[in-house]
């Protein structure tokens, strides 16, 4: 009894008589070409699939890196603002007012010198805040040979003065610079805090 009916038949062109048939050279070349084209197409599909998968992975990694970088930037900015705020506050409360106070005398002397060029020999009148005359007197005596009268005015805030020689009058306000710096600092801190909240 034969088991041929149970086995797969691999004969491409079985002859009617059941005897094997030889392939021609052309048929063999066609088979080789078809096999090559099928293998090449399968290889291209695998390469495309691998490239697409790699591109997706790179895109996902890039997006994650950008998100991490953005988060790190926000954290760094938040920490910088948190550390700068006390320093700015100390600057506004202590350093700048002391600087303005020390420069007050120098600015009055500079303004009075400029005014005296056009009003030679005329007496000068300086109106200053209460308590400022004592600090100003030695500098004015050392710098000017003409008479300088000082009047203290309790209504003037620290850092402000009024100078007059002849018909020339000027107002001096050292606190305006301090106020401008204070406003700029507050605006910077507000902007930085807003940026850290909203990204």
Name the descriptors.
single chain; 199 residues; alpha+beta; 12% strand; rod-shaped; ABC transporter ATP-binding protein; ATP binding; ATP-binding; nucleotide-binding
Describe this entry's structure for a reader.
- The protein has 199 residues and is of the alpha+beta class.
- It has a domain at 62-198.
- 65% of the residues lie in helices and 12% in strands.
- The protein contains 3 helices and 4 strands.
- A 4-stranded mixed β-sheet has the order 2-1-3-4.
- Helix 2 links the parallel strand 1 (124-129) and strand 2 (148-153).
- Helix 1 (25-118) runs antiparallel to helix 3.
- 8% of the residues are buried.
- GO terms for molecular function: ATP binding.
- Keywords: ATP-binding, Nucleotide-binding.
- This is ABC transporter ATP-binding protein.
Q: Which range best describes the helical content: under 10%, 10-25%, 25-40%, 40-55%, 55-70% or over 70%?
A: 55-70%
Shape label: rod-shaped
Low-confidence stretches: none
- H/E series, N to C? HEHEEEH
Helix and strand arrangement:
Elements: H1 25-118, E1 124-129, H2 133-143, E2 148-153, E3 160-165, E4 168-173, H3 175-198
Parallel strand pairs: 1-2
Antiparallel strand pairs: 1-3, 3-4
Summarize the structure.
By secondary structure, this protein is an alpha+beta fold.
């Amino acid at each position: 009894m034969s088991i041929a009916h149970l086995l797969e038949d691999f004969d491409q062109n079985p002859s009617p008589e059941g005897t094997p048939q030889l392939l021609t050279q052309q048929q063999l070349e066609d088979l080789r070409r078809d096999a090559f084209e099928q293998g090449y197409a399968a290889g291209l599909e695998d390469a495309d699939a691998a490239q697409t998968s790699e591109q997706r992975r790179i895109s996902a990694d890039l997006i994650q890196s950008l998100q991490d970088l953005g988060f790190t930037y926000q954290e760094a900015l938040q920490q910088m603002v948190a550390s700068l705020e006390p320093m700015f506050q100390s600057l506004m409360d202590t350093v700048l007012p002391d600087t303005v106070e020390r420069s007050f005398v120098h600015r009055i002397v500079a303004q009075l010198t400029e005014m005296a060029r056009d009003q030679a020999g005329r007496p000068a009148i300086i109106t200053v805040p209460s308590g400022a005359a004592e600090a100003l007197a030695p500098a004015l005596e050392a710098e000017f040979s003409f008479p300088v009268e000082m009047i203290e005015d309790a209504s003037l805030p620290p850092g402000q003065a009024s100078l007059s020689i002849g018909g020339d009058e000027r107002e001096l306000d050292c606190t305006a610079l301090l106020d401008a710096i204070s406003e700029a600092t507050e605006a910077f801190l507000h902007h930085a805090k807003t940026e850290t909240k909203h990204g």
